[in-house]
Specification:
The two termini are 36 Å apart. It contains five helices and 18 strands. The protein has 348 residues and is mainly β. Pfam families: Methyltransf_FA.
């Protein structure tokens, strides 16, 4: 900025690329960001803060192309991204192929999961309570298990939610309840039903972290110490299981619990058909989108059908599919709320 002389800047927001540049040169970049989940811009607002005084000269833009709707171009482009500044990775194998697509297919069939990272959360009765894991970037609707550690004297609670809010039906797990004397697994649908419990003092520890693992694959819920294949704490087979959208953690009775949540690596969608290469090639699952405008809500037999409906809709930019109820929700790229949502977004 200059107190006496005007300085020229420009801003562009084509597709997901947000750029701010100096003068009229596209090479003189001041700021840049590539948003994996961009939203349609309805207006621009200018201001100044801290008692400043700024004179603006705004060049009225000439109408050109509208902000483009995402559309898939090539299957390989949808499944992979060329990145030029990577470190050198370990070589798994070297082989020969006839073309790029064949090499991509080999890579996709042999891909390995990334190493999971951890998120630390503290819950206190009456304060910082009811923490949804999705707000910490942990999206359990892409996996069927969760590993975590807890440190506290009592009452580590988890709710496995079918909605983004605490509305039945849901599963409730209480570890170290009743003054650290009882642990419970409950199903809350039409009414609260305690389906399994374990009596025994000392499930939690005031000074040391204790490891647990939770799984809910195919309606089989299990809570284990360290690992579900070893020391099983709670278990229940639900004859009519429901899809888990989110997990909410908390503590009660003025308890204080420190959590270490291992961010799960996405595996397969709960009880969904295996995602086909068509869906993988045309869409990308984004987990930190704002809430977009709903175009329509319909039913679809499976994920692939919901994807096809979105592709045939001119306005559809992304969709959300809920296996429980076979709900297919199509959305535009107009953001209507800052609440984080997860969508399958059409790739350009």
């Amino acid at each position: 900025m200059n107190c006496f002389t005007y300085k020229q800047f420009w801003v562009s927001w084509k597709a997901e690329n947000i750029k701010v540049g100096r003068e009229n040169s596209t090479d003189n970049i001041l700021l840049a960001y590539e948003d994996p989940c961009p939203f349609f811009l309805q207006d621009l607002q200018i201001s100044t803060d801290h008692g400043g005084n700024v004179n603006w000269i705004i060049e009225v833009p000439v109408s050109k192309e509208a902000q483009p709707d995402p559309m898939q171009s090539k299957v390989v482009d949808g499944m992979f991204r060329l990145v030029t500044d990577c470190p050198t990775f370990q070589i798994l194998t070297t082989t020969s192929t006839t073309d790029l697509i064949e090499c991509a297919a080999i890579s996709d069939s042999n891909q390995e999961h990334n190493t999971a990272s951890n998120v630390n959360i503290t819950t206190t009765g009456g304060l910082m309570n009811n923490v949804s894991l999705s707000t910490s970037g942990i999206f359990v609707n892409k996996t069927t298990e969760l590993r975590f550690e807890v440190r506290g004297c009592r009452d580590a609670h988890l709710r496995l939610l079918t909605q983004k809010t605490q509305i039945p039906p849901y599963y409730l797990i209480m570890i170290g309840g009743w003054h650290n004397n009882k642990s419970v697994l409950a199903r809350h649908a039409h009414y609260y039903q305690e389906v399994d419990n374990d009596f025994g003092y000392g499930e939690m520890n005031c000074s040391n972290y204790k490891k647990f693992m939770l799984s809910w694959s195919g309606g089989k819920l299990q809570v284990g110490r360290e690992d579900i294949n070893g020391d099983l704490l709670l278990s229940y087979v639900d004859p009519c299981p429901f899809f888990i959208q989110d997990i909410q953690i908390n503590t009660e009775h003025e308890g204080h619990v420190e959590w270490i949540i291992q961010v799960p690596v996405p595996t397969s969608i709960q009880s969904d058909p295996v995602e086909s290469k068509v869906v993988d090639g045309m869409f990308h699952f984004e987990t930190n989108c704002p809430t977009f405008q709903v175009l329509t809500t319909t039913t679809a037999a499976h994920l692939n059908e919901c994807a096809a409906i979105c592709m045939w809709s001119f306005e559809c930019s992304a969709f959300e599919f809920v296996n429980h109820g076979r709900v297919c929700e199509l959305v535009s790229n107009i953001a209507v709320a800052k609440t984080l949502s997860s969508y399958y977004r059409i790739l350009k």
